[in-house]
Amino acid sequence: MSEDTVSQSCKDIATLIDHSLLQPNATDRDLATACEIARRWDVAVMMVRPYHVKKASQILRGSTVPVATTVGFPHGCNASLVKVYEAEVALDEGAVELDMVANIGAIKSGDWGFAERDIAAVVSVARRCSAVVKVIIETCFLDEAEKVRACEAVKTAGADFVKTSTGYGPAGANVDDVELMRRAVGPDFGVKASGGIRTLDVLLQLLNAGANRIGTSSTAAIMAECHRRE
To answer: Does the annotation mark 54 as catalytic?
Structure first.
């Protein structure tokens, strides 16, 4: 494989990465470092906590990297009105993508009507400014039937992506779940894998399984490994 081909491949991989800084103890200095990594590798988005949206937007002004944030993170049990307000504030402060956590309790209870309405409420806010919505279903808590039905609910509610994990549950993304989610939503819907993705090999496995967006805080290590394989 030629150097140009490999470089293009690494560049393409970077465009599928949501570089994430979601740790509860992340500082402003950590944010500056994370934004520099995001800018250096020209990733899909810089994913930050709501508190850091405005600061990240300022740091990344003039770059090609937009800012994304979370809604109802990490448990998804906020009232829908709270999620809506959280989304409105985030969008007003500069976020262009929202990773919201579905109401896992409603899903486990089989209250699919509520689960869909909860998602649709945030989607409605996002659509006012053409923002992307990814919905985290926290697959580690769901059985196979619930995973499939949750994917269907996310799609019905009008979101853009279904996402495996917050990264703060008992387990993160795996190939089996990504394959199942891809089958459930079909070829033209977004599937984001997140949680525990720390190496290039794992990232590639998840892309091959059907993910078309990857959430990771290990972007620098992954991209360095990609270029070492040129």
So the answer is: no
Q: What ranges do the domains of the chain cover?
A: 3-228
Within 2-95, where are the H helices?
3-14, 28-41, 53-59, 80-92
Each residue's pLDDT tens digit, 194-206 = 999 999 999 999 9
65-113 confidence digits (pLDDT tens): 999 999 999 999 999 999 999 999 999 999 999 999 999 999 999 999 9
Place of tokens 């500069």: 94
**Residue 215: count of CB within 10 angstroms of its CB:** 30
| Interior/surface letters 106-144, b for 16+ CB within 10 angstroms, e for the rest | bbeeeebebbbebbbbbbebbeeeebbbbbbbbbbbbee
Q: Which helix (H) or strand (E) holds 19?
A: strand 17-21
Question: What fold, for 3-228?
Answer: TIM Barrel (3.20.20)
Told to judge if 111 belongs to the known catalytic residues of this protein, a careful annotator would answer no
d(CA 31, CA 36): 9
**Active-site hit among 99, 118, 160, 177:** 99
Catalytic residue among 83, 160, 163, 177: 163
Distance CA 118, CA 64 (A): 31
For residue 155, indicate whether it is catalytic: no
